[in-house]
Fold Amidohydrolase-related domain-containing protein.
Amino acid sequence: MVDLILKNGTVATMNERREVIENGSVVIEENRIRDVDNTKQINKQYSAEREIDCEGKLILPGLVDSHVHLGQALIRACADDMPLVPWLKERVLPLQGIAYEKGDGKLSAKLCALEMIKSGTTTFVEALLHGKYIEEMIEGIVESGMRGAISKSLMNQPDYADQSGAIPKCMRENGEKTLQQTRKLIDKWHGAADNRIHIWYGLRTPGGATVDFYRRAAEEAKEHDTGFTIHLAEVKDDIRYLENEFGMTPMEFMKHCNIVGENTIYAHGVWLPEKDFQIIKENNCTLSHNPASNLKLGSGIAPIPEMLNHGVNVALGCDGGPSNDNYDMIREMKLAALIHKGRKLDPTLMPAETILKMATINGARGTVWDSDIGSLEPGKLADIIVVNLNKVHSAPVRNPISNLVYAGHEGNVETTIINGNIIMESREIRTLDEEKILKEVIKQASKIDERLNLNIDTRWPKI
């Protein structure tokens, strides 16, 4: 007798052969997948404590968001129509560093988790958590039931590229202390909550740290057998700075600092030159593509088809509340599929199947959890979502992968299972009190704006 069977659905396994089982079932025992096969075969072999009928629905691995800012959900829509450095210096960082008080970090993490769970994300990589409220944010994620690699912000300079003092005083940290804090977080949290929580090293963008500091962080990550992530080549300023200061391309600089390896995720990569693609590929690194954020901030469009042609492992990410305004990976998938067709004037680029691969198994590979997540195969962890595409906005279903990528959104996700636990069923989240959290978010948002004397409103006259 097994614990749960998801039966009668279309199963997108995302296994090595990318097999799709038209009338398939997934067998779950404790927190792992026991079997995946056609329903007729599963019915012969198994009985379960509970069965969920998924007829007419798509069963697939939970989505992996490879670049998230948990602390920015509570400051959604705080900095529209601003370039990156003023956006950071005047709004995004002060709102977190000055305006946040105890409890706000945890509330932001829970709001972010709610949206991710409801839109089918089961695993994420948090890019840069500031030390002040990092533990309460981790606690929020543990309570949510999600799986995440959470990165402590590391820096020893207050600059962004060649812009001196771009990081405001409220978010500046002592380099030695950030390394000490990270080690303490690893001791306390790495592998916590049944191995749902991993602690990574979150490196500030070049300009925010010295070469020696980067190398120390890379060595520590290796010693602790964990990962690290860094924003890279997001804007043209990054390219100019590395060329003028070091005479290197971004990936030559990463290699120079030992920030390479299968445990490394670079976010954005908008302005990476072609010669860097091979360095990423040769070192088994991952590039996190964040199209919505890059477009909203006017940063540009990353050359993703070209990277894929070079064999780069490209994952997908939503980034944060002020740069994207949502944490919905399904919406991000559509954008990632469309913008490159328009950029290259080629509708054959970036088909739906490629995009879903980026959002599942490629993301899993970047987190170094790919032996356990990213596909539906016996022995892997039961991180699974059930999607109903028979909705007004996404029916009729001909190719379910296409319908998901081009016509879907978070409202199509009905069930989210993480580590074998049903976190959401029939759109009802079991781990977090959605109504209570939303009420608190509305209440706290106005207080946060007041603390920074912000009055953000429409540009149109109100009467």
